[in-house]
Design brief:
GO terms for molecular function: S-adenosylmethionine-dependent methyltransferase activity. Residues 52-146 form the Methyltransferase type domain. It comes from Alkalihalophilus pseudofirmus (strain ATCC BAA-2126 / JCM 17055 / OF4) (Bacillus pseudofirmus). This protein is an alpha/beta fold. The chain has one domain (7-154, 170-200, 253-260): Rossmann fold, CATH 3.40.50. It has 12 helices and 8 strands. Strands 1, 2, 3, 4, 5, 6, 7 and 8 form an 8-stranded mixed sheet that branches.
């Protein structure tokens, strides 16, 4: 494989998620999102399927899929995160296999899986086009690919603002892409859209920033950047601040289901 950028970014991801593994298992936005039952409804998984959950984190998608498929391979770049997730899930699910793996260089053969999923993780990937290429490669013809992630607005100023405050909040953040850029990458790999949904997602600021911040100074920097924005930017991200304190911010989230070209997945 041609050398790709990202070794420093991936080191930051492993450091961040290894240190905060338990927080991601318990995180309300990760563990209790309404998108978890929704993704099962969209996918309509079958009992004989083998599924892959890329960058499983706290294992919430793997946990949602396990009752409906034959086997789930839950992968993550961060060994400590994956071990913590396995410790939580292994008592309840015997059909989840845990594999340390890079989303951009998956250790699986071509056409292995009926289903590939990835939720609230691709903004950490240095080479998102390579991640999409790998997801498509390991899917069977007709297999399904479901992705959920924070996305940047199409407007450059708004996108820059989002990615700046996300990087300030979480040093392992690389970039939230626009929907149009993701659609370009998916189309390049012969992935055909089945359905998609763009919606607003509100984060409670204290819990959201404390999950990734290393100290109070970092929290103050994020707070200052958010509150110093123009009126138009604050309106777009629905910044809720009272008495000088940020209560919540709202960002865009895209959920999309694609099918790999070829014979229909039976």
């Amino acid at each position: 494989m041609t050398a790709r950028k990202g070794s420093e970014e991936k080191a930051e991801v492993m450091k961040q998620f290894g240190a905060n593994a338990e927080k991601y298992v318990a995180s309300e936005s990760h563990a209790k999102g309404e998108d978890l039952p929704q993704l099962v409804q969209w996918i309509q998984p079958k009992a004989d399927w083998v599924a892959l959950d890329i960058a499983t984190g706290g294992g919430h998608v793997a946990k949602s899929l396990a009752p409906h498929v034959r086997e789930v391979f839950a992968t993550d770049l961060t060994k400590a995160m994956l071990a913590n997730t396995a410790n939580h899930l292994k008592k309840s699910f015997s059909n989840i296999t845990y594999v340390v793996a890079d989303a951009e260089d998956l250790p699986f053969l071509e056409g292995t899986f009926d289903l590939v999923t990835c939720r609230i993780a691709p903004h950490h990937f240095p080479n998102p086009d390579q991640y999409i290429a790998e997801a498509a490669r390991v899917l069977k013809p007709g297999g399904l690919f479901l992705m959920i992630d924070n996305v940047a607005p199409e407007e450059e100023e708004l996108a820059e603002y989002l990615n700046t405050f996300e990087k300030l909040r979480d040093v392992s953040h690389v970039a939230s892409l626009s929907v149009s850029k993701w659609e370009e990458y998916l189309a390049d790999e012969g992935m055909v859209e089945v359905q998609s949904q763009l919606k607003k997602k509100t984060y409670k600021f204290p819990a959201w920033v404390e999950r990734t911040a290393e100290d109070s100074d970092q929290i103050k920097r994020v707070h200052h950047y958010i509150t110093s924005a123009s009126k138009e930017i604050k309106e777009y991200f629905q910044v809720d601040a009272a008495a000088g304190e940020v209560k919540s911010v709202t960002i865009d989230e895209w959920m999309t289901l694609h099918q790999k070209g070829g014979m229909e997945n039976e």
